[in-house]
Amino acid sequence: MLENKNPQRTSLEKMGEFGLIKHLTQNFELVQPSSLKGIGDDAAVMDFKEDKTVVSTDLLVEGVHFDLGYMPLKHLGYKSVIVNLSDIYAMNAVATQVTVSIAVSNRFGLEALEEFYDGVRTACKLYQVDLIGGDTTSSNKGMLISVTAIGTAKEEELVYRSGAKPNDLLVVSGDLGGAYLGLQVLEREKEVFKVNPNNQPDLEPYSYIVERQLKPEARKDILEILNKLEVKPTSMIDISDGLSSEILHLCEQSEVGCNLFEDKIPLDPTVISTSEEFKMDSTMIALGGGEDYELLFTIDQADFDKIKGNPNLTVIGHMTDKKEGAHLITRANTKIQLKAQGWNSFSEE
Ligand code: ADP
Ligand code: MG
């Protein structure tokens, strides 16, 4: 699991920039009809005809957003693409292309980048998006990754953060808190490994949450489900920073309030048992832990019958008038003001 100390290492300098790009991107093929020109010219060319174009970018920095001590490069490549696709799906759009730019120090060899692109390719294939470009450069220290995802939607299909109305139901896909707890487990094992490198960690009991951290998925399937059910969300956002901060984004941009019910928040049994083990409150983890990449959206009450009983979707609350504010209704039936305790890159820890 932990960083291989003795990998084969072919120096990047020997390859030359063009040779390197060619080598890394040789096994990618274009599958989207809108990709007219991919890698190899000064710019890529796309044609979306009558559709609207949706674009989103993320920048990931080693030591801030990922730790190669427990993040295998293949997973990192996969996850870098997934987190961007998630933003496109959160607009109710279809992701069609990505660009991937990387900066690496001379600590990285060709084999490391091959592994990274292996993950990028796996994600592209699974989600049917084309790698159409990027940039490759060196860094003085560590690795930086920037991915831009491009997608398309008909104007009337787009869903913004700003469309929620009072009395709309608040719905979330999947379950929450797993990715954050998975990270806690990996951090703990990393410390154990530092003290005793012969101690092979047993991650089996934590496999679900470790996978949520290392190999998240983007919920393209939820858009397909909603489409089949003929439900169009009134507002939507993806959960990258924890439930409470995402709810507050919807409230602020839609100018509404919200009641979130603690007993409705979907938690996997592994999340419940592991939060007990870490002496943490599982509700707090769902509210504040990041990186679950589930979709959070609101629907008109009239659509409730269409989604009820779907195992992928949980109604966790409803929107209210703005003046009522945003609250968590606890299991003990007390009302607590929601605060954005989501982790962010600028918080001091
Ligand atoms: P330029 O000098 O004009 O920036 P590059 O030599 O960097 O061009 O890129 C040549 C082609 O290779 C372009 O199509 C670019 O998008 C693509 N490319 C460069 N780096 C990457 C990368 N890391 N991943 C995917 N495509 C890349
Ligand atoms: Mg370039």
UniProtKB/TrEMBL annotation:
Further facts: Reaction mechanism of ThiL seems to utilize a direct, inline transfer of the gamma-phosphate of ATP to TMP rather than a phosphorylated enzyme intermediate.
Span of domain PurM-like C-terminal: 165-325
Protein name in UniProt: Thiamine-monophosphate kinase
Binding site for Mg(2+) 3: D42, D87, D238
Catalyzed reaction equations: thiamine phosphate + ATP = thiamine diphosphate + ADP
Enzyme category, top tier: transferase
Binding site for ATP: Y117, G134, D135, R161, S240
Residue positions binding Mg(2+) 5: D241
Pathway assigned to this chain's UniProt record: Cofactor biosynthesis; thiamine diphosphate biosynthesis; thiamine diphosphate from thiamine phosphate: step 1/1
Function, in words: Catalyzes the ATP-dependent phosphorylation of thiamine-monophosphate (TMP) to form thiamine-pyrophosphate (TPP), the active form of vitamin B1.
Residues reported to bind substrate: H65, E291, W343
Sites where the protein binds Mg(2+) 1: T57, D58, D135
Family: Belongs to the thiamine-monophosphate kinase family.
Species assigned in the record: Flagellimonas allohymeniacidonis
Keyword tags: ATP-binding, Kinase, Magnesium, Metal-binding, Nucleotide-binding, Thiamine biosynthesis, Transferase
Single annotated GO MF: thiamine-phosphate kinase activity
GO biological process: thiamine biosynthetic process; thiamine diphosphate biosynthetic process
The PurM-like N-terminal domain, residue ranges: 40-152
UniProt-annotated binding residues for Mg(2+) 4: D42, S56, D87
Spans traversing the lipid bilayer: none
The EC number(s) this enzyme carries: 2.7.4.16
Binding site residues for Mg(2+) 2: D58, D87
